[in-house]
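Subject: Sanity check before I submit

Could someone independently write out the structure tokens for this chain? I want to compare against mine line by line before I put it in a report. The sequence has 153 residues.
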Amino acid sequence: MKILLTSLALAAVATLLPGCATRESGAKLTYETSPAGATLYEGGQSLGVAPVMRHYNADAAGGQIRTPEVTAVWPSGARASFWTFLKVGDDNVTTIARPDKAPNLQADLDNALKFQSAEDRLKEQNRRDIARSSARCQAQQQGGVVAGIDDCK
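---
Independent answer below. Compare away.
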């Protein structure tokens, strides 16, 4: 009797497990802007300054996902909106471009420089962090190796 109950319990668990498997339930979309530095809005709510990654859930049928309209607003007041269709499992990037004929382009280009500089600083910091964690730098920091390249500080 114990063997029968154990077998039934294992069969029940095995039947339930496939339903618990991780499945894609939506799609990701990262919004960038050109020039950089626009604030993004979705449904009247600020998402922050681009780039912003959003996850959109699929409906029960699991078909295409229609994204809500996202509006990019630059410091000059220029605006551009975007929406699209995604497939479940997508991980896409889109760039919302400033309208060509919008006034005060220079204000938006000047603002973009702040974001470019911050991005460059982050890339340089990441490069230094990678160099510092390398075997060469660790040996150099322990005094075991003298190298012609000293980017470990």
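---
OP: Matches mine. For the report I'm noting this point. Helices lie at 2-20, 105-132, 135-141.
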